[in-house]
Amino acid sequence: MLKDKCALVTGGNRGIGREIALKLGSLGAKVIVNYRKDEEGALEVVDTIVKNGGEALALKGDVSSYEEAEALIKKSKEAFNNIDILVNNAGITKDKLLLRMKEEDFDSVIDVNLKGTFNCIKHITPIMLKQKGGVIVNISSVIGLIGNAGQSNYAASKAGIIGITKSIAKELGGKSIRVNAVAPGFIKTDMTEVLSDEVKDRLKDSIPLKRLGEGKDVAEVVAFLCSEGASYITGQVINVDGGMVM
Ligand code: NAI
After folding, report:
1. Pick the CATH number of 6-232 from 3.90.190.20, 3.40.50.720, 3.30.420.40, 3.40.50.261
2. Which residues contact 193 (CB under 8 A, 6 or more apart)?
3. Does residue 54 have its Cβ closer than 6 Å to ligand 1?
4. Is the CB of 144 inside a 6 Å radius of any atom of ligand 1?
């Protein structure tokens, strides 16, 4: 389904990004697995894709740096000659109630989640314009829609991602570049592993489908948005949250 396409997944070394990279690889895309520090994780993802008959490459780069994002995209293009799909998945949390939140807690979350998304879109757009098409999927969060006590930095970054998604979708729609966002609810990854069992149980109760999500649940929707089947969808935010927010 994605044969001859090349996809760059930021933070593809673990969690949701890992599942997205594996899914796109299984559909025939050549996958660039970006990582910041965890080379071992990224190489494991690459190995898994290659063992399943696909093509993949791990590339280091901190997306919050304008220059590193530029170099990442340049190397990705050199590796597979084109980049058709960008999945802006890299993200961090630094949860604190506002009164305890330090300036650097706010800045670092915005820098990775929002600026990182901008940096990658900014550097990939000239390539996609030259190719006369492309697909961008940004990983937001339901927290960007509803807010959450202790996550004002994260909620702002994820709401910002929705704003950038819609604006760039309007700017680039006429150039056959589609831009959408996926807003996951609570997905079982290292990021949510820090929550206590009590909190997880309470969350499950509040979710109509009565379970936390899996990385695969998000990867399936990302893969659909990257596919031809989604060719008339742009500027949308798709919740993958078991019905938590509606
Ligand atoms: P995770 O912590 O397991 O993975 C985050 C990934 O981002 C890691 O691969 C990490 O290496 C990468 N990363 C962090 N900073 C980076 C940087 N500066 N440059 C490049 N890569 C960087 O978290 P998870 O859960 O897999 O999250 C993935 C995305 O999904 C994030 O954007 C997160 O905000 C979002 N999300 C997660 C939810 C969840 O419940 N787990 C819910 C809603 C959204």
Report:
1. 3.40.50.720
2. none
3. no
4. no
Tens of pLDDT, residue by residue over 115-160, are 999 999 999 999 999 999 999 999 999 999 999 999 999 999 999 9
Give the residues across from 139 on adjacent strands.
182
Residue whose CA lies nearest to ligand 1 atom number 28 = 16
Q: Give the separation between CA 231 and CA 176, rounded to whole angstroms.
A: 9
Query: Using 50, 70 and 90 to split pLDDT, how confident is the model at 222?
Result: very high
The answer to whether 66 is a known catalytic residue is no
- Best residue for ligand 1 mutational test, from 18, 31, 36 (most atoms within 8 Å of Cβ): 36
The pTM of this model reads: 0.98
Give me the residue label for tokens 């993200």: 91
Phi, psi of 178 (to 5 degrees): -100, 140
Residue among 9, 13, 22 nearest 41 (CA): 13
* 3-state SS class at 95: coil
Q: Is the CB of 11 under 6 A from ligand 1?
A: yes
Report the C-alpha dihedral over residues 186, 188, 191, 194, rounded to 10 degrees.
100
Two structure tokens written together for 7: 């996809």
